[in-house]
Specification:
alpha/beta; Rossmann fold; globular; 35% helix
């Protein structure tokens, strides 16, 4: 066990909460006697300690809680309190959220969700954060450039899907000070009941072609809806909310733009009433395929939920990235092009059974359950191994 600490600004952010589920880490709170941070950094109300084997600091709290220009001073103070200081970049997309000057301050940077196979891509404006659909072409360089030495510090860590594994959720609830005993127990029971129910739901007859329901958090989700609607694709698709902070744009939407999008969606019956999570997941079983488009990141909780329900998932191609999610293209998931240019053809092939969606769904269910059963190994591989490769 490694005596550890996570410095973060709030509880409830999956990239930092997930660390608490690792069985080889014993967490304590950080006692900020030197007032290094502008607000509290122990949202889990852990017993405080003075020294640690490992201190993890998230990229978000480093940005929000440390005054600009004071990062080096804070990092030096933290290094005196631990044997290993680690930055965990909790940005949802595959891109890095910290500049080279911050990477320089750390020995290791854990990058959640995925790491580019060609790390030089970090020096280019690629991926879902940027306007246009360019995930791999080196067309526009960033204003800041990472050196080979800095990029070597970037290590692959866990994907967001770890956060919805029932065992991980059970562990994290123990560290949520806002949940009472009975609320915690009831949620654990519901998770287990739904897991058992999914065994039967995966056999339910699918009578519609496809579905996508979620918030409008990326401009490509709007493009997806227009594509499905204009091609008269059978299924149930739409959005629950239009978010001002929409990814894939130069800037956030103004209230007038949000209103305009809502009116257009309502006119095409694409603005949907929010469903509770159980109904939302139960409805997956109605469809031959479920589309999981990009949101704030290329990875999504929905990816694993589709597999858990034994359905054929379709998501944009991420084969340019190393990751630890249980995806095997064309075996337990279907990848489409990032710009959706082949999606309609894929859906037609699903409908004609030229793509065996039933077998893909069966494979997906089996892969998801196997991955969940080995979740401790996933956590160790994504957290401990990058820090102690020879342990």
């Amino acid at each position: 066990m490694y005596k550890s600490c996570i410095i973060t600004h709030r509880q409830g952010f999956w990239a930092y909460d997930t660390l608490l589920a690792c069985p080889k880490l014993d967490f304590f709170g950080f006692h900020d006697t030197a007032n290094l941070f502008s607000s509290g950094v122990n949202p889990y109300q852990l017993e405080p300690a003075e020294d640690f084997d490992i201190i993890f600091i998230g990229s978000h709290p480093l940005r929000y809680l440390v005054p600009n220009g004071k990062e080096k001073e804070v990092i030096k103070a933290l290094e005196k309190k631990c044997k290993k200081l680690v930055l965990i970049d909790g940005w949802d997309s595959f891109d890095l959220s910290v500049p080279p000057s911050i990477v320089d301050l750390f020995e290791t940077v854990l990058k959640v969700n995925g790491v580019y196979k060609d790390k030089d891509l970090y020096n280019w404006k690629v991926g879902c954060d940027y306007p246009g659909v360019n995930w791999t072409n080196k067309e526009t360089k960033k204003n800041h450039i990472y050196t080979h030495e800095q990029l070597d510090k970037i290590k692959l860590s866990f994907p967001c899907q770890v956060g919805i594994v029932p065992e991980v959720k059970r562990r994290l609830r123990k560290h949520n000070p806002t949940l009472g005993y009975w609320t915690t127990q009831s949620r654990n029971i519901v998770d287990q009941m739904f897991k058992q129910a999914s065994v039967l739901m995966k056999y339910r007859f699918a009578n519609q072609l496809t579905s996508f329901l979620g918030d409008l958090g990326h401009i490509q989700r709007l493009e997806l809806l227009h594509l499905l609607h204009d091609n008269h694709i059978d299924g149930d698709y739409g959005v629950f909310r239009v978010l001002e902070s929409m990814a894939g744009l130069e800037q956030s939407l103004c209230p007038e733009q949000v209103k305009k999008h809502k009116e257009e969606l309502e006119a095409h019956k694409l603005l949907k009433k929010k469903k509770n999570r159980i109904q939302y997941l139960y409805d997956f079983s109605k469809f031959k395929s479920i589309i999981s488009p990009v949101g704030y990141g290329e990875m999504c909780f929905r990816d694993l939920e589709i597999m858990q329900m034994g359905r054929c998932g379709i998501k944009q191609d991420i084969s340019h990235v190393d990751h630890l999610a249980p995806f095997v293209p064309n075996e337990n998931i279907i990848f489409c092009k990032p710009n959706f240019s082949d999606l309609v053809e894929i859906l037609h092939n699903v409908d004609r059974r030229e793509i065996d969606y039933k077998q893909i769904g069966k494979n997906a269910y089996k892969a998801a359950r196997s991955w969940e059963q080995n979740i401790d190994q996933v956590l160790e591989t994504s957290i401990i191994t990058p820090l102690f490769p020879h342990a």
